[in-house]
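Problem 12. The chain below contains 238 residues. Write out its predicted structure in token notation.
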Amino acid sequence: MVKKFNDLGQLNEEAAQLFIQTAREAIEKNGRFTVALTGGSSPVELYKLLATTYRDAVQWEKVFVFWGDERWVPLTDDRSNARMAFETFLNHVPIPKGQIFPMWADHKSPAEFAAEYEEILRSQLQPAGRFDLVLLGMGADGHTASWFPNTGVLHEYDKWVAAYFLDAQDMYRITLTIPLVNQAAKVAVITYGSGKAEALYEVLRGKRNTEQYPAQLIDGTEDGRVTWFVDEAAAQRL
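Solution.
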């Protein structure tokens, strides 16, 4: 499903409503809500809305927070997705600290931590290994999570979490893998700006080329599990 908006404020309002409704349904059914957050600039206004306008709309004590991907940097680093989420969102809502699982640990290698994070997920997401909601963004190169073009992680279907060195950024990345994301009950992809227009067209309407446009690997757009929240600038070619 693709939802187009003229106004970024309305886009974020609608994304917040999806978050809230999904949380309420999951808590009513299972007593808990599991969500994987995204990084970058795309979700910042959504996070601020959830922390202010909609702070009382969710039973935060029943929310379990994970990340879809992360740069392998300390939580104090400006590049940390977790740091951004804490500053804009998580520090302002009463989620128990033991229910928040950043993708970082001191004194571990990226590969060691990826294996450890997978074990955490297997214990928290049992029995189905299914998030209630995964939030994603999309880069102008067509990547999502840390599924970057022409990287080996695009072929990782055994692990739930993978670590690898991204040469283009000269750093390690940690990411949920394609099969785990595609098992989620719901996925929301927030994409806006004219700089994303070409990639969005290729991902949603172009020829299948997952090596160049990894966001094509997100399944469920047609059956309603996946919602793309896009503005008119990003959707100008659709």
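Discussion. The longest strand covers residues 161-166. Students who got a different answer should revisit the alignment rule from Section 12.3.
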